[in-house]
């Protein structure tokens, strides 16, 4: 095995939604992945309450950083950089992580890297399967987005090929779980029920799959309405709702479209492997169907283990380490959280071009007038 | 002793250094929407003005509000993290206490009020600049008019509602310099300071906004 001691040691902080994640990586090696979740506090509201998430981040941050360093067996002074999700995500939640990362980087005298949450979801696969092939096709599916992305260099070039035009895939899972009275979050529980159901029992619609529809865009709003109507009609007729068959048929409609479009994008672009990330990538049927279709098409599938697919700090650290390795410019201390940071910006370099390996980073900020 | 004080609970982003005797450097900017961007560069500038480095700091003092949550958390998260990285204690001081201290009103009771938005104020009642006797609380000005009648009032929240607070005094915004001086005085007297935890005074709005899109699912 290669000597990894020279690879960058980076701590990553993630607070874009309801998970307070702090990870530590060395190059492409995962050393720690500490996560504190406030999901239980959101459950009774049927969705993430931004203010509840932000409050939880503030309380969890310092203990989670301490746990990550302890798990990794490293000392903060040995870090080569601090990475943090700068966006996209919930504005107030992001701001807690960005504030912590800036203070930590400044106090330790380390460079700061504000990175993109979506690019981090892709980069995390390096911790599982080694360096990302270039280019990489990525299908990111979560509660906030469903996107097909093509990246030739995860630190500098991420191109959106398609995205959801209405609901995200994960959102559809939550909504159908609510209609079926299965609680929140919906992903894992639908997955569980679907395993005992018949995916072909009910023919739910496949959104945006007509010949004139955008090849790589997604739509789950019509599916969601169709499933809800079907359930309501059963209830109105006084019949039992076959929860397992509904769950399986709904899930099949979602993963059929996701995998069909992802495989098509790979073929069209001549990319011979596919990466799937985001919380919905934990879905067992999505993983199975993607595997089946990729094999048939001669495409290599890369899906990280479920814990690395959901939001975590390790993915942020993974992208931060890549930024350091490729000498990307560090962010400056005026870095702000950007709730709608475009996917085309993998990181947020400082306005003053502070260099990744500039050990006078702290000094440089003092010299420049940041208040003009 | 070197105290680093900061407060982001009001529209002011304010930072000060106190050496145990006096304030040696300070910065205050008023910009309610950019706490996150302004705070760290302000810390950096204050240290540079004093010719010191962050690792010279022996304790951090943070305003714990009450204040609008998003901005309030910037200061507290920054203070918490400095405490972790430097291995120094982090103390909390009620932001309204800082305003009371800076008011210098020695002759009798007065109130401090800051803007809580939603047509409410965060407020507290003081016997003198160092002694809070009630609050902090969050209320509609009209609902507390009787309780504050005839009392001088300090802070931007008072200035917003002249019907309730006809006798408004300065300062308008809290300064970290005042927080630092108050904290130094209390520490010297052996008094306990607060835990550096936020005073929200309101429950979170427990509604999932319509059309709200989470970034990640569970
Ligand atoms: Zn995510």
Automatic annotation (TrEMBL), chain A:
Domain of life: Bacteria
Class of enzymatic activity (EC top level): transferase
Cofactors: Fe(2+)
Reaction(s) catalysed (UniProt annotation): L-threonylcarbamoyladenylate + adenosine(37) in tRNA = N(6)-L-threonylcarbamoyladenosine(37) in tRNA + AMP + H(+)
Localization per record: Cytoplasm
Keyword flag Transport: no
Keywords recorded for this protein, A-Z: Acyltransferase, Cytoplasm, Iron, Metal-binding, Transferase, tRNA processing
Cofactor note (record): Binds 1 Fe(2+) ion per subunit.
CDD domains per UniProt: ASKHA_NBD_TsaD_bac
SUPFAM superfamilies tied to this protein: Actin-like ATPase domain
Bias kind Low complexity: ranges: 337-353
Domain (Gcp-like) ranges: 30-317
Compositional bias of kind Basic and acidic residues: 355-372
Chain spans, region Disordered: 337-372
The keyword Transferase belongs to this UniProt entry's keyword annotation: yes
Predominant localisation class: cytoplasm
Protein residues bound to substrate: 140-144, 174, 187, 191, 283
InterPro entries cross-referenced by the UniProt entry: ATPase_NBD, Gcp-like_dom, KAE1/TsaD, Peptidase_M22_CS, TsaD
EC number: 2.3.1.234
Chain residues that bind Fe cation: 117, 121, 311
UniProt similarity note: Belongs to the KAE1 / TsaD family.
Function: Required for the formation of a threonylcarbamoyl group on adenosine at position 37 (t(6)A37) in tRNAs that read codons beginning with adenine. Is involved in the transfer of the threonylcarbamoyl moiety of threonylcarbamoyl-AMP (TC-AMP) to the N6 group of A37, together with TsaE and TsaB. TsaD likely plays a direct catalytic role in this reaction.
PANTHER family tied to this protein: TRNA N6-ADENOSINE THREONYLCARBAMOYLTRANSFERASE, TRNA N6-ADENOSINE THREONYLCARBAMOYLTRANSFERASE, MITOCHONDRIAL
Name of this chain's protein: tRNA N6-adenosine threonylcarbamoyltransferase
UniProtKB/TrEMBL annotation, chain B:
Alphabetized Pfam families for the sequence: TsaD
Upper taxonomic lineage: Bacteria, Bacillati, Actinomycetota, Actinomycetes, Kitasatosporales
Residues that span the membrane, as ranges: none
Domain Gcp-like stretches: 32-145
Protein name: tRNA (Adenosine(37)-N6)-threonylcarbamoyltransferase complex dimerization subunit type 1 TsaB
UniProt signal peptide: none
Entries under SUPFAM superfamilies matching the protein: Actin-like ATPase domain
């Amino acid at each position: 095995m290669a000597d990894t001691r020279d690879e960058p040691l980076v701590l990553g902080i993630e607070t874009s939604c309801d998970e307070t994640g702090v990870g530590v990586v060395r190059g492409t090696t995962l050393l720690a992945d500490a996560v504190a979740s406030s999901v239980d506090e959101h459950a009774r509201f049927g969705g993430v309450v931004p203010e509840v998430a932000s409050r939880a981040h503030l309380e969890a941050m310092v203990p989670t950083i301490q746990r990550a360093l302890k798990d990794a067996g490293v000392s903060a002074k040995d870090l080569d950089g601090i990475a943090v999700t700068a966006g996209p995500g919930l504005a107030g939640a992001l701001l807690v992580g960005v504030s912590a990362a800036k203070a930590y980087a400044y106090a330790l005298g380390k460079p700061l890297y504000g990175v993109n949450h979506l690019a981090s979801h892709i980069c995390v696969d390096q911790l599982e399967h080694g360096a990302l092939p270039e280019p990489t096709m990525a299908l990111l599916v979560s509660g906030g987005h469903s996107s097909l992305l093509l990246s030739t260099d995860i630190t500098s070039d991420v191109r959106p090929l398609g995205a959801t035009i209405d609901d995200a895939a994960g959102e559809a899972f939550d909504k159908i779980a609510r209609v079926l009275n299965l609680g929140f979050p919906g992903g894992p529980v639908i997955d569980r029920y679907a395993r005992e159901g018949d995916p072909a029992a009910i023919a739910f619609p496949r959104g945006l799959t007509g010949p004139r529809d955008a090849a790589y865009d997604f739509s789950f709003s019509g599916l969601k309405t169709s499933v809800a109507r079907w359930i309501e009609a059963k209830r109105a007729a006084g019949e039992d709702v076959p929860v397992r068959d509904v769950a399986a048929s709904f899930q099949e409609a979602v993963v059929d479209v996701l995998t069909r479009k992802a495989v098509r994008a790979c073929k069209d672009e001549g990319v011979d492997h596919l990466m799937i990330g985001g919380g919905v990538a934990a879905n067992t049927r999505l993983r199975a169907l993607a595997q089946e279709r990729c094999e048939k098409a001669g495409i290599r599938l890369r899906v990280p283990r479920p814990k690395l697919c959901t939001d975590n700090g390790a993915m942020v650290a993974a992208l931060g380490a890549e930024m350091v390795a490729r000498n990307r410019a560090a962010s400056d201390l005026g870095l702000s959280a950007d709730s709608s940071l475009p996917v085309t910006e993998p990181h947020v370099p400082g306005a003053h071009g502070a260099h990744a390996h500039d050990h006078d980073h702290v000094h440089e900020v003092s010299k420049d007038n940041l208040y003009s | 002793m070197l105290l680093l004080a900061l407060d982001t609970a009001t529209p002011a982003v304010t930072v000060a250094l106190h050496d145990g005797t006096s304030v040696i450097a300070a910065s205050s900017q008023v910009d309610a929407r950019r706490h996150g961007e302004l705070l760290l560069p302000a810390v950096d500038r204050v240290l540079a003005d004093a010719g010191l480095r962050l690792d010279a700091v022996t304790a951090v003092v943070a305003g714990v509000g009450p204040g609008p949550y998003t901005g309030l958390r910037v200061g507290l998260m920054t203070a918490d993290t400095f405490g972790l990285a430097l291995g120094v204690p982090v103390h909390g001081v009620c932001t309204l206490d800082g305003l009371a201290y800076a008011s210098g009103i020695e002759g009798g009771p007065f109130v401090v009020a800051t803007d809580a938005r939603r047509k409410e104020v965060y407020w507290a009642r003081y016997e003198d600049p160092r002694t809070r006797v009630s609050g902090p609380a969050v209320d509609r000005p009209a609902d507390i008019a009787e309780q504050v009648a005839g009392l001088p009032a300090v802070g931007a929240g008072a200035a917003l509602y002249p019907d309730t607070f006809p006798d408004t005094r300065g300062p308008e915004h809290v300064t970290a310099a005042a927080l630092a001086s108050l904290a130094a005085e209390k520490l010297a007297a052996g008094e306990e300071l607060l835990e550096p935890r936020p005073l929200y005074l309101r429950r979170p709005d427990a509604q999932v906004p319509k059309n709200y899109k989470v970034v990640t699912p569970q």
